Amino acid sequence: xxxxxxxxxxxxxxxxxxxxxxxxxxxxxxxxxxxxxxxxxxxxxxxxxxxxxxxxxxxxxxxxxxxxxxxxxxxxxxxxxxxxxxxxxxxxxxxxxxxxxxxxxxxxxxxxxxxxxxxxxxxxxxxxxxxxxxxxx
Length: 137
What we know:
Layout: H1 6-24, H2 33-47, H3 49-52, H4 70-73, H5 76-85, H6 102-114, H7 126-132
């Protein structure tokens, strides 16, 4: 045990928190499926649920379902592209590449590929998103 003054403790704590935050957002960190799914569910709830709905069924005629869709169960590169850059077919699908971090995009795609009836077991890592951006995080 090391005793520290309140000022030294605050400096130590700030350094530890900064290091933890940097590790959390490290695009080279390899995340386990369960952690990505948990984080992805939060990202989905904050950003995607209004259109694609909590059950992943979307709104017929307006916003496509993700539950059981080919984009969320088969075409992983296409899934990454549409979340990063929006849809070329459906202008309502926003491009999230400028709003969300590599980790958040990887997490939400992993969640969508493993939620509801989608049980692909696919994991999308932040490095996959960084690569899809052309190496620019």
